[in-house]
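Subject: for your reference before the review

Hello V.,

The reviewers asked for a structural picture of the protein, and I figured it would be easier to keep everything in one thread rather than splitting it across files. Below is the amino acid sequence we used in the manuscript, unchanged from the supplementary table.
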Amino acid sequence: MGRYKRTTERQTWSETGMVKAIEALRTKTMGLKKACKLFSVPRSTLQRRYKSSLASGAAAAKRLGSRCNVFDTETELELVQHIKTMESMLFGFTPKRLRKLAYQLAKSNNIHERFSSVKEEAGLDWYRGFMSRHPDLSLRMPEPTSSARAQGFNKVVVDQFFDLLTELQTKHHYSPDRVYNCDETDFTTVPNRPSKVIAARGKKQVGSLSSAERGQLVTVEICMSASGNFIPPMFVFPRCRMKPELLDAAPPGSIGVAHPSGWMQTDLFLKWLEHFVYHSHSCADSPVLLILDGHKTHTLNLDVINLAREKCVSLLCLPPHCSHRLQPLDVSLMKPLSTYYTQEVEKWLLVHPGRIVTTLQLPALFREAYLRAASALTAVNGFRKTGIWPINRDVFQDADFAASLPTDIPRLEHEATGSNTELVAGEVSPTGEYVELIIEKTGMPIEILQIPVLQSQPLIRHIGEGASQPTSHESGMEQLDDVDQLILQVISPITMELTEGQVGDIDSLLTLVEPVLQQPGGGDYFVEIGSALSNKLGAIKPFFGTKNSWFFGTKNSSPNMEQTPIIYMFMLTSNAL
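And here is what came back from the structure prediction:
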């Protein structure tokens, strides 16, 4: 009985002490009386077990009562290891599933047991005993992990990221105070998770005071270095015009901008980058590495890339769906910052009865939480745990990638390139045959612009409602305006370090390119990359290969077509299709 309370003190001695006492007698390091006193074991029990022919471990095992464990020690250890392995792959066992597994294990190995044959599962007493015998196991509430994150964080992608990081470090020799990580996070006037409170046991529902049902959202851009320095944050307020008084109680040095949505935008991130350059003092003699996620406000931004190039800021993008393990801010700062902010909001509501938290009070509340969380130790630990500084790709063991094993998909390796642009995807160069064909089709002089090969998995295609699917290149061009924007998810990380005079960049994919992709069992599809700027599109001439499809498109540099048009070229690999 798992809940049986003993009434005697039989076999209350420690098995570890018994083993040590038996070994002491066998090695003649002490006598029987001294061993009993030193290791707190009964004299008669020690004498009897010492005289037995069993090994020390077997002789010291307790065998009280007629009942014994269903599984031997070796089998239980294998079961424990299986439980840990499945949990690391995000398929953890619930108590119910574990009891059913124990029943199946006993039946398949013809082990005598007293489990329920009706329920076909082990009992609660066996479960409680099993958990008590293995204190390294505990019942935990799992954190939901999306399938995209489980698939995205795999060894191939992480190795590619560290290859790029090592290459940049070898080239520029960054010191820890020149390596930064930035990320935006949102704070609302109504925290999502209130703090736990003490209430009467058995009460079904416990309430907590909040400002409203749904709060106003303010985005904050945060940045820290591997040496523990912090760049003053930037606030994005949900309003049309910015008021300076909103920053009166914000952290020192903070800046603020306004946007109706309260979210970070492309032009707003440019303002933050200017703010970052000012505080980081980046220059040719002291270049800076900025690690950030691959959000479109960061990567699909020509002005940001040009400013970064001008100020010697290398941009290194994290692999998609890996920020929970590779981003220092997510690993060390964001969780305590959110917790401290919630505490500050609750404290403010307590001392201001009858009032609600608005965006006017949010910067002051954020300041108190930020000054508590933003410590040098927190920043240094974040970079160390992610292996970014000091660079250590071995910080992640094979067990850390276990979640990606059930859906592991090999990633395409990037091609080597001699270009000055450091990119995960190799750059493509048009052959003379294609160039001549483009000139012949357009009848105009052209300027070649290299665009990286985009390795995408999966490629999301969407045909807008009411838009008929084209059956030829010409019909596709006529119906181009009817197609909704398609999202292209680039799996590989991207790092950008453009040199002076280089034309190409990711943001050049503002052009629409309309290929007709013939697939078995599929139809004709549009593919759109970037913003829907079909009115600025010149002539598109797609060309098809067998395994890989190469597409070219022209975009006039000016509406009157007086300037030289630019040729945009990219490739969709067969694996991405």
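For the response letter, the relevant points are probably these. The chain is about 35% helix and 15% strand. Residues 177 and 227 are 5 Å apart (CA to CA).

Happy to draft the paragraph if you're swamped.

O.
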